[in-house]
UniProtKB/TrEMBL annotation:
Record-linked CDD domains: DHDPS
NCBIfam families assigned to the protein according to its UniProt record, in alphabetical order: dapA
Entries under InterPro entries matching the protein: Aldolase_TIM, DapA, DapA-like, Schiff_base-form_aldolases_AS
Annotated TM spans: 195-215
Binding site for pyruvate: 49, 208
E.C. designation(s): 4.3.3.7
UniProt source species: Parabacteroides chinchillae
Annotated GO MF terms: 4-hydroxy-tetrahydrodipicolinate synthase activity
Location (main, coarse): cytoplasm
Protein name per Swiss-Prot or TrEMBL: 4-hydroxy-tetrahydrodipicolinate synthase
Length: 297
């Protein structure tokens, strides 16, 4: 298993769409360049923020190929490979081409609502099906079930290629429990921009960010300052984004991120159903905050 450094700010890439809802590969290529050139430490491709459930298999392959080609191994690429059918994920891991991919991110199975033992066995099958590093992803607000600290730590201890967890439970006691009791080769990554700073002060190694789509330079600087122990400087940047943290998610993700990128001139403000763009009132508030942050829009 190859080592991967997930310290710092990863960005969960959006998928730009044209007005006719086809994938805007040109806009995606420009967004990848923008990330690489502005301090993003690694990219997360085909995660929740990418509207992956609405993409065809052919579109997914083209997106992966574009990102791998654009990045040219300059920063790591983490690929979302998750679902609620364990057998399907195992088959994908065994049969798909993962050239240029440095790790996989796999979400706790959603909708089925498995027990803790079911979650453990699910990830056991995934870990045994690949030599790639595996990042667990706990986001009970989306999946309907929380992976406990006990289950996370059990997986971390039992499988060498289970290297980290993206924790988006919002439960600081649980996240602190994992950080306190984890093995040395396992890391905790914030799954929420708004708690990245306080979680780093507890011992997390960074964040997989949505806001980084638009602000890679600024937000990666906040993360690096916090990791270096310069909490006062990091806190100042963190607080400058406080209003955006809530605005980005008030109408759902990635609607907020897409409206922000649209205001900045990167993409069309287009999502695929069942997701829809932010309300006009939210969009105007986002534009106002961008102006206050001296972002041209």
């Amino acid at each position: 298993m190859a080592d991967i450094n997930l310290r710092g700010m990863g960005v969960a890439l959006i998928t730009p769409f044209k007005e006719d809802e086809s994938v805007d590969y040109e806009a995606l290529g420009k967004l990848v360049d923008y990330q690489v050139q502005n301090g993003t430490d690694y990219l997360v491709v085909l995660g929740t923020t990418a509207e992956t459930p609405t993409l065809t298999e052919e579109e997914k392959k083209k997106i992966i190929n574009l990102v791998v080609t654009k990045v040219r191994s300059r920063i790591p690429i983490v690929l979302g490979v998750g679902g609620n059918c364990t057998r399907s994920i195992v088959e994908k891991l065994k049969n798909d081409n993962f050239e240029g991919i440095d790790a996989i991110l796999s979400v706790v199975p959603y909708y089925n609502k498995p027990s803790q033992e079911g979650i453990y066995q699910h990830y056991k099958a995934i870990a045994e099906a690949t030599t790639l590093p595996v990042v667990l992803y706990n986001v009970p607000g989306r999946t309907g079930v929380n992976m406990t600290a006990e289950t996370t730590l059990r997986l971390a201890r039992d499988f060498k290629n289970v290297v980290a967890i993206k924790e988006a439970s919002g439960n600081f006691t649980q996240m602190d429990d994992i950080i306190k009791n984890k093995p040395a080769n396992f890391n905790v990554i914030s799954g929420d921009d708004g708690v990245a700073f306080p979680l780093i002060t507890l011992g997390a190694i960074g964040v997989i960010s949505v806001i980084g789509n638009a602000f890679p330079r600024e937000f990666s600087r906040m993360v690096r300052l916090a990791l270096a122990g310069d909490y006062n400087s990091a806190r100042t940047i963190h607080h400058s984004f406080t209003e955006l943290f809530s605005l980005l998610f008030v109408d759902g993700n990635p609607a907020g991120a897409k409206s922000m990128l649209n205001a900045m001139g990167f993409i069309e403000n287009k999502l695929r159903l069942p997701l829809v763009p932010t309300r006009i009132v939210t969009f105007e508030k986002i534009r106002d905050v961008l102006r206050q942050l001296s972002i041209k829009c």
